[in-house]
Design brief:
The protein has 373 residues and is α/β, with parallel strands linked by helices. It has twelve helices and nine strands. It folds into two domains: 7-31 and 283-365; 46-260, Alpha-Beta Complex (Spore Coat Polysaccharide Biosynthesis Protein SpsA, Chain A), CATH 3.90.550. The longest helix is centred in the first third of the chain and has 25 residues, at 7-31. Keywords: Glycosyltransferase, Membrane, Transferase, Transmembrane, Transmembrane helix.
Length: 373
């Protein structure tokens, strides 16, 4: 005989079951996966591409670390100067005199209606000498001198797309923790989904693909007028064209970057990233939407049940079981990806993140105007 709980409580239980499915099928198995092999078939030389717009100070930090990479087959570094008004071009030109593997591509203007970054990247890719392309952003740094080596091993599995992870550097304050939590949760999704054979996105801060893959998708042609999506929408197109994707998520393969310093800056950044989601395949939108929706509905339903005295006990049980499961899972993912967060903060970060996600969704629905640099 069924216990006469309210229908809202049964809805809450369903939300918990959906979340536990993602935890049990995607996140925990990914966190527990075997260590990636330390040796693989030798990959070929690689072109490392960095697109920069007024990023001189960041480039002074990044480029020396790229040149110190330990990668025997060899590599070139292509810096794409996208309409910079600072001294980016003279600085890189100076480097080219001492390092023959450094090359500069200058973009003076972007044709009307085209995404500046996608146009700049396209010009850079056209000049690349090697088949394998590795991308990062000017405000990132490789975590180790083995970054290129680790990322290139993914091509030998074999694959045409290699998805990496790019955490933010720990810092003081709640915003930094929230940004790192969002990055961990996003990484848990796109990395574990790809690990299960359902790749749907990557991050341009740490992404690799072949020239053949880029030509197969006709570059950024399908979304060249959209500001965002030089990474995730390209992955969408590549998967639709039958290109194979793999994951390289060992800590030595990470790139690191500084988190947005203000709420406003992070808000603009996330609006731009989420806007690309409209171009995802239906199956991917449903898979992601079910996870996000189940979490949001869980919190909304739980708040409603707080006003139902008779359901306080089952509510507490479901809340406790769900919170324990996700906190344990996120802690394991953080350790596996070398991006740990204080365990005591995880429940609060989870609540704030999903309501922040809801606010972003409403904002994108009401105001669709976006700005690039």
């Amino acid at each position: 005989m069924l216990i006469p709980f309210s229908p809202v409580l049964w809805l809450l239980a369903l939300c918990v079951l959906v979340q536990l499915y993602y935890v049990g099928y995607y996140f925990l198995p990914f966190a527990r996966r075997p260590a990636e092999p330390t040796a693989a078939a030798a990959a070929g030389p690689v072109s490392v591409l960095v697109c920069a717009h007024n990023e001189l100070e960041n480039l002074r930090r990044l480029l020396p670390l790229l040149l110190q990479q330990d990668y025997a087959p060899g590599f070139e570094v292509i810096l794409i100067d996208d309409r910079s008004g600072d001294d980016t071009s003279p600085y890189v030109q100076q480097l080219t005199q001492y390092y023959p593997n450094v090359r500069l591509v200058s973009v003076d203007r972007t044709p009307d209606g085209l995404s500046p970054k996608k146009y700049a990247l396209t010009l850079g890719i056209r000049t690349a000498r090697h088949e394998q392309l590795l991308f990062t952003d000017a405000d990132c740094i490789p975590a180790t001198s083995q970054w290129i080596s680790h990322m290139q091993r993914g091509f030998a599995r074999p694959a045409e797309l290699v998805l990496g992870y790019s955490p933010y550097v720990p810092g003081p304050g709640f915003l930094n923790k929230l940004i790192r939590f969002e990055t961990l949760l996003t990484g848990a999704q796109y990395l574990s989904f790809a690990w299960r054979g359902r790749a749907y996105m990557g991050v341009g801060r740490n992404l690799a693909y072949t020239q053949h893959c880029f030509r197969t998708t006709k570059g950024f042609a399908s979304h060249i007028r959209s500001l965002g999506g030089d990474d995730d929408l390209l992955v969408q197109d590549a998967v639709q064209h039958g290109q194979r994707a793999t994951v390289v998520a060992e800590p030595a393969a990470h790139t690191l970057t500084e988190a947005a310093p203000t709420w406003r800056a992070w808000w603009r950044q996330k609006r731009r990233h989420l806007s690309a989601g409209r171009g995802y395949r239906l199956a991917d939108r449903l898979r992601i939407g079910n996870f996000i929706g189940a979490n949001l509905l869980f919190y909304i339903t739980a708040v409603a049940l707080l006003f139902s005295r008779a359901d306080w006990v089952p509510l507490a049980v479901l809340w406790g079981a769900r919170t324990a499961a996700i906190c344990i899972t996120y802690a394991k993912l953080g350790r596996r990806l070398d991006d740990p967060l204080p365990a005591v903060w995880l429940p609060l970060l989870d609540v704030v993140y999903f309501f922040h996600y809801l606010a972003l969704g409403i904002s994108l629905f009401l105001y669709r105007n976006l700005r690039w640099k």
